[in-house]
Specification:
Layout: H1 2-12, E1 22-23, H2 25-32, H3 36-45, E2 51-53, E3 66-70, H4 71-81, H5 86-97, H6 102-117
Antiparallel strand pairs: 1-3, 2-3
Helix pairs in contact: 1-4, 2-3
Length: 125
C-alpha cells in the first residue's frame, strides 16, 4: 500500500498543495478544475471520499455540517478519473516539444533548470 501511495504522489502529487492535508469543497474544486457543487455532488454519490461533520453541535442537533476532503482522496479521484498514464502524458509532452522553436525550447530549458537546481543556477558556457 505504501508503494502504491508513493506512486500516486509521484505522478499526481503536484496537483495538490504539499503542506495541506484537508480541503474544503471550494479548494478541491480549484484543484480538479470543477465547481464546488460538483465536488459536493461527487461526495454524496461516492465519487470523492471525505468527511462530513459539525464538531460544535451535539449529535442530532447539527444545523450546519462541514465537508472536508483529505489530500489522499483528491489524489485517488485524480488517479481514477485520469484517462492517461504518466508515460503517455510524457509522450504527449515530447511530441509537443518537437514543434517548438529554438527560442521556446531555450525558455523551457531555463525554467526546468531553475526548477531542478534553484533560481541561482547559472548555465555553463
Amino acid at each position: 500500500m505504501e508503494m502504491e501511495r508513493d506512486w500516486i504522489s509521484k505522478h499526481f502529487g503536484d496537483f495538490v498543495p504539499p503542506n495541506q492535508q484537508w480541503f474544503s469543497p471550494k479548494e478541491v474544486a480549484a484543484i480538479i478544475g470543477r465547481s464546488d457543487q460538483f465536488v459536493r455532488n461527487s461526495f454524496y454519490s461516492g465519487k470523492i471520499m471525505g468527511h462530513m461533520s459539525n464538531g460544535l453541535a451535539r449529535k442530532g442537533e447539527e444545523k450546519k455540517s462541514y465537508l472536508r476532503v483529505h489530500r489522499d482522496a483528491i489524489l485517488m479521484y485524480l488517479l481514477e478519473s485520469a484517462n492517461y498514464t504518466p508515460d503517455t502524458f510524457m509522450e504527449g509532452i515530447e511530441q509537443l516539444l518537437q514543434n517548438r522553436s529554438q527560442y521556446q525550447l531555450m525558455r523551457l530549458e531555463k525554467m526546468i533548470r531553475e526548477r531542478l537546481y534553484g533560481k541561482k543556477f547559472v548555465r555553463a558556457k
